[in-house]
Amino acid sequence: MKIFEYQATGLFKKYGIPVTEGILCSSAGEVEAKIPDDGKSRVVKAQVYSGGRGKAGGVKVVTGKEATVEAAGQILGMKIKDFVVEKILITEAVTIEKEYYVGMVNDRNTRSVILMVSTEGGVDIEEVAALSPSKIFRTAVDPVVGLMDWQARSAALKLFSEPDLLRQASGILSALYRLFRDTDSTLTEINPLVLTSGKKIVAVDGKMNFDDNALYRQPGILAMRETTDTEALEIEAEGKGLSYIKLNGTIGCIVNGAGLAMATMDMIKLYGGEPANFLDIGGSSNPQKVIDAMDLLIRDKNVKTVLINIFGGITRCDDVALGLIAALKKIQLAIPVVVRLSGTNAAEGLQIIRDYGLQPVTSMREAAKKAIELSKTKS
Ligand code: GDP
Ligand code: MN
Q1: Mutation choice for ligand 1 from 2, 61, 95, 126, CB with most ligand atoms inside 8 A
Q2: Which CATH superfamily is domain 96-222 in?
Q3: What distance in Å separates the CA atoms of residue 153 and residue 149, rounded to the nearest whole number?
């Protein structure tokens, strides 16, 4: 799970990390009402689940109320990497002397938390990692003992040498580690952490990701989840025991097992089609799951054909066929369905499909080709 910058910096503040104070707005009118006419410089920042907002024009440093309202109008509604900007954060601007990078991630290989710091802040850290990896200092933190004070100090020493700045930076690193651990974060990043002209170290950006499997014990984090329509569907599917991931194509796929889902998507792509989703009904024999899956699928208006590809193991093909027919009776489907069943009780399943008046196919290749053909003829 991800959160927005304003939420991440809100957590930073709770942990005593200095941040630039901000006001969240979702319309130009709100900016007009909330921002004082004091001639001060401010930063207008798009709140989207994506970095690189600066480069995309989603971060603007402005002076005075009029310019703030104008920048807000430009940024609201803007599209940054497929995300439409619905909220902006307006922060006080600081005068930046230098930008740094600070981050931590879980590392499975070393079973530790890797703390990373770099003097090359503000820019894309992946680029720094690729072009000049020596400019990123890394240290492994044993999660059993936590970030030791000496470790925080030696990392801070890679960025600063003055005693006062060292004190500030190591305090920030220690607090950031506590936050990372307390919230079951998988990635926490400040880019840039800045040194201001007033010799203060401040976080002017924040990014945090969390372990979805730990959300059950993180009610505070879970409450920050803001879902898009797509994510809402994915969460609804999860509640029904289905794995659903929306993609951008036109062929809706109902399959059992993640491996078969991948293979089905590969097959569709091989013959020039695009899958509309990844929908795995899992390994059970419950007809209700097929009904639920069909119901979810057709809510995606891009779906032009449904491809049902089942390999019966524990799942029985006749149960899937019954579920499918129950779903078809319940939902008035305006798009074609291609069914391929193979494995346990396939003969019985295929007979049920035929009795209903559908013509099933037996090979996966044939199924993919037919689904693509039908998705193209139907507009
Ligand atoms: P990102 O591009 O999505 O990572 O957005 P950031 O929040 O990191 O902002 C991008 C850049 O805007 C930063 O690297 C800074 O150079 C600049 N910036 C952000 N806040 C301030 C500020 O308060 N003052 C000044 N002068 N520049 C800022
Ligand atoms: Mn940034």
Answers
A1: 61
A2: ATP-grasp fold, B domain (3.30.470.20)
A3: 6
